[in-house]
Amino acid sequence: MFDAGRQRGVAPCYRCLFPEPPPPEFAPNCSEAGVLGVLPGLAGVLQATEVLKLLLGIGEPLVGRLLRFDALGMRFRETGIRPDPQCPVCAPGVPFPGYIDYAAFCRGG
C-alpha cells in the first residue's frame, strides 16, 4: 500500500515507484488491454480491507510493502519498498504538485 497521507516521507507514494506516467500509447484502458473481470473487484476488496485496518487501528497495514497478485497462478507476492527521498510528490518539504488528469492524459482512456 502506498502512503495514505499519514507517513509523508516514511512510506512511499505511487510516484516513488513510478516517477513518470507512461506515454499514452503504453497506457491502454482496460478494454484495450484486456482485464479479467474479477480483478478490479479483487483489488477493491483488498483496498477496502487496508482502509478498515487503518481506520480501526487493527492488523498490519501494507504500508511500505507492495502486494502483487498473479491471478493465473493464484499467487500473492510481497515486496518491501522505500520512499524516494527525491520524490516530487511526497519528499519532505516538497509542496504537492497537483493531480494529473489521467483520462485526458491517456486520450479519454
UniProtKB/TrEMBL annotation:
Signal sequence annotation: none
Coiled-coil region(s): none
Lineage: Bacteria, Pseudomonadati, Pseudomonadota, Gammaproteobacteria, Lysobacterales
InterPro entries: ThiF_NAD_FAD-bd, Ubiquitin-activating_enz
THIF-type NAD/FAD binding fold domain location: 9-89
Pfam families for this protein: ThiF
Domain of life: Bacteria
GO molecular function: ubiquitin-like modifier activating enzyme activity
Name of protein: THIF-type NAD/FAD binding fold domain-containing protein
